[in-house]
Amino acid sequence: MQHLEQEFSNAIGYVMDTAVDPPKRLGMAFLVSKSRAVTCASEVFHYVEAPWALKIKFPFPDASLAVKTVHLHNDFDKVEARAQYLKQTGSPAETMSSFMNDLAMLVIDHNPPASMSQDRIAELNRALSLPFSSEGVEASGNLRGAEFVQIVNTIVESGREGLLTLYDSRNIPVANLLMARGGILKVFYKQVMSSEMAFCELVYRQPAVGFAFRPGANIAWGDVPDVQTPPDHLCYEAMRRAQEIPNLYQQLGGKDARYQQVVQQFDPSAASEEIQWMVEPLWLSLDGYLTLDKTPLKIGVDTYTVLIAIRELVNRGVISQINRLTPFPCTGVIGDPLISHTDFEVHPWDPLQAFYLDPSSGKPTWLEGNFFGVANSLQPKNMLHTIEIPNDVNGALILKDYKLIGIHSGPQVLKPGQPAPPVKCFQFMWMGALLDLSTRKSRSGGAGEEAEGVGTLRTMDATSEEEEPPEGERIQCPNCFAVNAEYGECKTCSTVIEAPPPEEEPSNPILASKPVKQLRQIQKKHKITNQQAMIIGA
User: Fold this and answer.
1) What is the pLDDT of residues 53-101, one digit of tens each?
2) How distant, in Å, are the alpha carbons of 50, 215, 241 from that of 35?
3) Could you write out the DSSP letters of every residue in 292-356?
4) Same domain for 170 and 83
5) Number of domains composing the chain
């Protein structure tokens, strides 16, 4: 099992958007050949014309690969995906969207350009920016640092009520504050937590570059609790915590320090009352992989409170900093491509496994569940499983008997009127769907150049294009689906492709005659049935 985990981990990476600073993680990808990786189309559909903005970061070997082209599944609904992208509101009630045929192939660029054009980066960022609606907006503008605290104080002093929304550089809402009752009533930032803690995290992280205040506006707040602290006290406490955090990091080894348990069990009641309520999730997260900077997001608590709790656990001697810079091997050598297994059947309730690298820490993670069935009888390669994979993990491996059979894409999509299954289900794409990408031609990064079909899995060098052979004459690798010129070792993944057994010579002299043989060749080439041949002959 350890060898298998290492094999998977070395071939799995995160797809990163490098057109923003810091780079934005989009989803997970894994290698299926020396020059191809598979990911979810919903994460990369915006980058079909801008693959140069993507990189695949492999945390285990500590290596990165550039992307040359992005190929989406032919039946992936880009229009619907774009519509869902434009609907982002930053609301806690916002749910993750899932899509049918959520599969994409990334072609690796082994000779990427030295730098990206600033004009192209600006063009991409404009395309990914949400249109700003001025409807109901009383005040809006740019922000720098913690200036939004001044805006909050101004709104409180004026006695105005409404919704204050903070935006990132692409005009995507990153936080919402409900201003009411002469103060701050609710705060939401990334995930549901105490509104006071969310406000403190906003003051420390300073993620926004713009704001808009809409009097009388509101959103669905779900389980976000009300603020119980007066606004002046809350602002003062948030600023105080933000100033103390750098000193706490210094005491604990820095933002990238990682901690691990040194005792098998710890009774939360033994901790101080200040941190008892959060010790259990914090304790479980201290696995030697998670950095201090990522811990708050993992357990849903603000940075200051997390650092205070970790300092107490260190002083009690129940946790310690790992004695190396990173838990990853960092060999610089990316692992071998993963082998897809589509040569056996899967039946309802067959046990399945899921494997992924935790998006916060990179820790190898195994989960178990069952196969449920197909998601749509008209699109049977969209399948369902019952493995409770977190919402922020797109692209996890779905395995049967620890063999790769699919890629996880999110919660099940229920159409109007479709009855819900008796158990919660999630979607995954059968790896055989890669064949649907095999005959498609798409544009490469160059102007007016056509690249080979995705399923050929060859380098995307436009200068070495070859005419694609007819489908009946293709010699296709059963592992990576690459088209080869001859039987034997696959030139892409080294799998041995066995030649089909020779056809037996018919004993009937009529069937063995030259005209009948020629007819058989025409039928095979054009996929003509015997009945169709009889009609044509008549």
Assistant:
1) 999 999 999 999 999 999 999 999 999 999 999 999 999 988 878 899 9
2) 18, 53, 47
3) TTTHHHHHT--HHHHHHHHHHHHHTTSEEE-SSS-SS---S-PPPPPPB--SS---TT-EEEEEE
4) no
5) 5
